[in-house]
Amino acid sequence: MRRWLSLLAALLGLGCAEAPPFAACGGTLGCAGSDCIELRYTRLDGSEAGGPFCSNSCLTDADCQALGGTDAVCITLDVEAPVRFFCAARCTAAADCYAGLACTETDDPAVGAVCLP
Question: Under a CB-based contact definition with an 8 Å cutoff, are residues 91 and 65 in contact?
Answer without folding.
Answer: no
